[in-house]
Amino acid sequence: MPKLKTKSGAKKRFKLTATGKVKTAQAGKRHGMIKRTSKFIRQARGTTTLSEPDARIVKKFLPYG
């Protein structure tokens, strides 16, 4: 069998944790900060893990982790 190709967009955006969860940056922080509340900006720092249904889709794009 040939090797499977990783989606290059996915490898730039997602990482798999040791337990198999999908880690990604917080959404909603690219532009339009002036209309966001301080609370939203503060809580959207760092990274988050995707929900199970979303993680299942992303894992197909990352066949080798």
Give an overview in words:
Helix content is 34%, strand content 14%. The chain is of the alpha+beta class and 65 residues long. A 3-stranded antiparallel sheet has the order 1-2-3. A hairpin with a 5-residue loop joins β1 (15-16) and β2 (22-25). It is elongated.
Core attributes:
elongated, three-stranded antiparallel sheet, 3 strands, 65 residues, 14% strand, alpha+beta, 3 helices
Q: What is the overall silhouette? A: elongated
With strands numbered from the N-terminus, the spatial order across the biggest sheet is 1-2-3
Poorly predicted residue ranges: none
Percent helix range: 25-40%
Radius of gyration, Cα only, in angstroms?
15 Å
Number of strand elements: 3
Strand content: 5-15%
Main sheet overview: 3 strands, antiparallel
> Helix tally?
3
Secondary structure: elements and pairs:
Elements: H1 8-13, E1 15-16, E2 22-25, H2 38-43, E3 47-49, H3 52-61
Antiparallel strand pairs: 1-2, 2-3
Question: What is the structure about, briefly put?
Answer:
With 65 residues, the protein is α+β, with helices and mostly antiparallel strands. It has helices at residues 8-13, 38-43, 52-61; strands spanning 15-16, 22-25, 47-49.
